[in-house]
Amino acid sequence: MQPLKVSLISEGVLPSTVGGVGRWLNYLINEVKNTEFNLIAIGGPREYRDKRIIHYENIPLRDSGGGRYANPESLKLLLQLFIEDGGNPLLRHKVREYADCPSIDSKIFWRVLTNFYKQHFPDKPYLKFFLTVRSLISPLISILRIDRMVKCDLYHALNAGYAGFAGVVMKALTDKPLLVTIHGIYEDEREWELRFMKEEKWLKNLCLAFFRKICLAVYEEADLITTVNESNKDRLVELGASSSKIEVIQNPVDTELFKMAEDRESEEIVVGTVTRIVPMKGLKNLIQAAKYLIENLSNVRFIVVGPIQDKEYFQECLKLADELRVSDRFMFVGQDDSAKWYPRFDIFVLPSLMERSPMAVLEAMASGLPVVCTETPGTREMVGEYWPLVPPGNAEKLAKCIYEIAVSLRESRKKALRVRDEIIKRHSLRRFAEKYSGVYIRLKR
After folding, report:
1. Which pTM value belongs to this model?
2. Looking at domain 4-64+135-252+430-443, which CATH architecture does it have?
3. If the chain, 445 residues long, is cut into consecutive pieces of 10 residues, what is the mean pLDDT of each piece?
4. Is residue 57 helix, strand or coil?
5. Do residues 155 and 177 make contact, with C-beta atoms less than 8 angstroms apart?
6. How do the domains of the chain map onto residue ranges?
7. Which of 3, 50, 52, 138 has CA atoms 20 to 30 A from the CA of 239?
C-alpha cells in the first residue's frame, strides 16, 4: 500500500516548537504510520530541516508583492472582513478571485484603504487604522498569492486562522480535501489577547470581525474538523461550525517520556507549572497565592517553566513577587524541556484565566503529580473528575486548594497514581495515531 501524502499547515509551529501544539505535532508525525508529511508554515523560518518532513516551505507573514495585475476591486471586497455587518467575502466568492489583490506597499493599496477608512471609520485615528488593517491583511494576501502546490492526498491545517485559510486556498487550487484540527478556539484566543492590549474598543472590534470571518470561511470549507474535547466542539458549533463535520480526538501523552519520578527525599514542597508567560496564563494570581502559602508552609517554593512571550507582563510578575516578598522562593527558569521538570515537582498548578486543551496538565497527570487548576472549559473536562478546580482569577481559593493538597501530600500522591492509570488508558499514543490514520484514509479522494 502506497503511503498517504499529507501536507500539514501550521501558523509558525514546527515539530521542534516548545509548547502543546509543537508536542502534538511531534506525536502526529512520529506515530501515524504509512504516511508521508509535508510541512507548510505560515510565518515560519525560511529553511527548516527534519528527516521526518519530506518537503518544507514557508509562507511569509508579510505580502511581498508580485508581478500580477493589481485589481482594486479584489481589495475592496476583502476589506469587508473588517466590518461586523459587512458580509463575508470569503464565503460569497471563490478565493482564486483574490490572487490579484494589490500589494500592501503599493499606491493602489493605500488609495483603496484610505477610501475605505473615510467611508467607515472617518472619526478614528487614521494611522492606527492603517497599520492595524495592513498588518492583519498582509498574511492573507500572501496566502492568496499561492499558485503552486506540492503534490499530496490531503491538507491538514492546525488551526482555523491563517493556517486554516491557507488550507482553504490550497483546496480551491487542487480540489484535495481539507482537515482542520482545533486545539484552542482561534477567535476566543485572539479576543483574550486583545483584552490585554491598551487599545480602543473600535480597534479591537475591527480585529475580531476579521478573525471571525476568516474562521467562518474555514469552518465552511473544511471537509472535517477535529478537536481535542467536547467543550471545544460545543463552542465551535456556537461559532458557526456544523456539528456533523466535527469529530473529537483527545490529546495524547507519551507515558515513556512523562512517567513517575522516584520518591523525592527532600522535605521541601515544590509547586510547579509549565506555561507560556503571557497574561492569559494567570501567573500573577499564582504569585499572590504564593504569599499566603509561604506564610503558612515553611518548606514550600514555586517554579515556573516556560518561554517569556510577553516581556512587559514578565516584568510585572517580577515586580509583584518583589512587592509581596516572595521572590526568593518563586523562580522563573525560562524555556526548557518540561519532561525533566515534572519529576522535580510535588504539586502541579495551572492558574490560567482561559484554557482549551492544556497539554501541560495531561503531562503532569501522566507524571503522577497531584494537580490544581482553575476551572476553564479545557480543564473542566480533563481534570474535573479527578482533582479540584478553582475559579479563574481567585488567588485566595487557589492558595487554599494548593494548601489542602500540600498538607496531605502522601494521600494526594496515592490518588495521583490512580489518576495516572486512567490517563494512560484514555490518552495513549497508539489510540491517537490510529484515529488520525483512519481520518486520513476516510478523507483521501
Report:
1. 0.92
2. 3-Layer(aba) Sandwich (3.40)
3. 92 85 93 95 93 93 72 90 80 71 91 96 95 94 85 96 94 93 93 83 93 94 96 95 96 89 76 94 97 94 94 96 96 92 95 89 94 90 87 96 94 92 90 96 90
4. strand
5. yes
6. 4-64+135-252+430-443, 72-133, 269-426
7. 138
